[in-house]
Amino acid sequence: MSKYLQNELTKLKKKFYELCAVVEEDVRDAVRSVYEGDVKLAEKVIEKDRQIDLTEIEIEEDCLKLLALYQPVAIDLRLIISMLKINSDLERIGDLAVNISERCIKIISLNRKDDSFDFTDMCEKALLMVKNSIDSMIDLDMKKAEMVIEADDEVDRLHESVFGKVKKALEKQPDNFELLSQYLTISRSLERIGDHATNIAEDVVYMINGTIVRHQG
Amino acid sequence: MDNVIENKLRLETIGLSVFYGENPGVKDVSLKIYDKKVTALIGPSGCGKTTFLRALNRMHDLTRGAKVTGKALIDGQDIYDPKLDPVIIRRKIGMVFQKPTPFPTMSIYDNVVAGLKLVGFRDRKLLDEVCERSLRQSALWDEVKDRLKTPGGSLSGGQQQRLSIARALAVEPEVLLMDEPTSSLDPQSTNRIEELIGELKDQVTIIIVTHNMQQASRVSDYTAFFYIGSLIEYNKTTKIFTSPDQKRTEEYITGQFG
């Protein structure tokens, strides 16, 4: 039975890693579309989301099938349970990348800009969290997973700072609401991406040693 | 081991070894068995789990060349105290074997009360009560109550195993040892025995040897993994089957060997 399960797990992992790569690329493209004001790149992210949704469902069905047919235990069980959970975090990250891309298109259509809002640092940090969380899962790298969990506070702090800036800017220029609300949504989406990357890293810790590290902060 | 303080200790081995001639079949096993819990003993063939189980009610007394060293205690009392009659020990610690063992020509009724009759009970009313109670406990009563005089050998395999359990329960043991009790049964009978284990654990402490990993995870509260005569890991079943501490346990339960 074990050999059948291992073969199935190998196939599932392949599909799963492909999803990881697509989601990571999406976040990268969404972030770039903001930097560069690239509508085409933003549209590409939006178009790819449907495929991410379908793959998410496929992976969920595969995980459920393996649980039902092979009753896996120990590392095999932890791997499948973690994949099941990480799968939905990846799908949510994909949705947030779409959200950022849509905000980017909206900002371009407004034909307005406020150069005092610079998301470079926040984008890089959130993107690194996603990359490291995925790498930690593929390499079963506990240190990398812990780095992601630690990095979350910094992204939260950056979001709070954007929130404060938007609030102040709105007081000064209430007619700029539409543009500022796009900035706020981008910031909020990056902060949520950081949260999902943290969830992934926490599931990686569980996958490696069976310890649940959620809600300890 | 995780959070076991809340459970009362019923049986304990301290450095228990079982030798066949010079060779130890079980090596230096220290294990605490908790009251009214199901403990599963798992491991590949020849790992010593059945040898260990049989040591708990002095079954090796009957094996030529077998020697048990170390301690086995029930409620703090030494099972191997030379002054103790093994028959008394076996009343306290009953056993159910891999193959159903009814006396085939003896009636269902006589099968159940055989142990009591052996130690001199003759009161018909008492024997009737014990027969009914034991058959109810082993979930066989409704199926056989109208044919208690028919031979035990006329029952199906699954019913015969429940009859063997009823016979073991008739002498009101504190501990029930089960040596692969479902390995010769079909899935439906296996399911019935597993349900029975769940019902019985409110009354007796159960130790079960099983080759079936899913069975161990379904029915037991604690699991002990044996390998080449040694106890490798012992913990709550949920811990063993989700994140065992030992690599060999993980390799065995995920089917990488054995």
Tell me the layout of helices and strands.
The complex is a heterodimer of chains A (217) and B (258).
Chain A: H1 2-36, H2 39-70, H3 74-110, H4 120-139, H5 142-172, H6 177-209
Chain B: E1 9-20, E2 23-34, E3 38-42, H1 49-55, E4 66-74, E5 77-78, H2 86-92, E6 93-96, H3 108-118, H4 124-137, H5 141-144, H6 157-170, E7 175-179, H7 187-200, E8 205-209, H8 213-219, E9 222-227, E10 230-236, H9 237-242, H10 247-253
Parallel strand pairs in B: 3-8, 3-9, 6-7, 7-8
Antiparallel strand pairs in B: 1-2, 1-4, 4-5, 9-10
Helix pairs in contact in B: 3-4, 3-6, 4-6, 6-7
Structural features, described:
The complex is a heterodimer of chains A (217) and B (258). Chain A has 217 residues and is mainly alpha-helical. Helix content of chain A is 87%, strand content 0%. In chain A, helix 3 (74-110) runs antiparallel to helix 6, helix 4 packs antiparallel against helix 5 and helix 5 runs antiparallel to helix 6. The mean pLDDT of chain A is 94. Chain B has 258 residues and is α/β, with parallel strands linked by helices. Chain B has one domain (9-253): P-loop containing nucleotide triphosphate hydrolases (Rossmann fold), CATH 3.40.50.300. Chain B has helices at 49-55, 86-92, 108-118, 124-137, 141-144, 157-170, 187-200, 213-219, 237-242, 247-253; strands spanning 9-20, 23-34, 38-42, 66-74, 77-78, 93-96, 175-179, 205-209, 222-227, 230-236. In chain B, strand 9 (222-227) and strand 10 (230-236) form a beta hairpin. The interface between A and B is medium-sized, with 14 and 13 residues.
